[in-house]
Amino acid sequence: MDRLILASTSRFRRALLDRLGLPYEARAPHFDEIPPEGMAPRDVARVFAEGKAKSLEPTPGAWVIGADQVPEFDGRILRKAESQDECRAQLAALAGRTHMLHTAVVLWSASEGRMLGETVTVELTMRPLSAALIDRYVTLDDPVGSAGGYLFEKRGIGLFESVRGGDESAIVGLSLLSLCRLLREAGIEPLDLAR
Fold it and tell me: Site positions for Important for substrate specificity, renumbered to this chain (predicted)?
């Protein structure tokens, strides 16, 4: 059986992968997320996912899962908020507006020299938010370190009016629909591996 290695230590990505019941190990990638100058946000997500997958020490017979998300607002990449004040500022900018979230997932086999991948784009429309509501939300979820200043997988879902495209797992950080398609393309039936 081919081994699966998740190039991430994100608890949210691990929880998503656990839903499939697949045996895997998680390893921390060694990759600096520096977007290439002038590259479209959707392409940056794919480059980051590939970079994370390839940053791990090659393991014979293993398929490495790499994933990354890049939020896009008004044609530019939203950076991860580094403080609660930055979370509040990002939420105030997004309130009542639509932004896109590009989630890339790749499967990399160093043994076979194969890279398979997909990128899913989801449009998220946030409802209008008062400063008091933004402050309450940031206090509850403390979304520091997240782009956009929210955690959709927690209370942040309550900030939105609508979500269009892709699958909900892509918003959390790993498109399970894409991953299952890629595994089948690699000759691995997810249900055959499930425990």
Answer: 12, 69, 153
Ordered DSSP codes for 124-170:
EEEPP--HHHHHHHHHHH--TTSBTS--TTTGGGGGEEEEESS-HHH
Q: Which residues pair with 80 in a beta bridge?
A: 147
- What is the value of pTM for the model shown? 0.91
Tokens of 73: 């607002």
CA–CA distance, 64 with 87 (Å, rounded to integer): 32
Length of the chain: 195
Cβ neighbours around 61 below 10 Å, total = 11
- Residue from 2, 68, 167, 192 carrying the catalytic annotation: 68
Which class would CATH give 3-186? alpha beta
What is the C-alpha separation between 71 and 17, in angstroms, rounded? 21
DSSP state of 80: B
| Chain segment 63-97, per-residue pLDDT in tens | 999 999 999 999 999 989 999 999 999 999 999 99
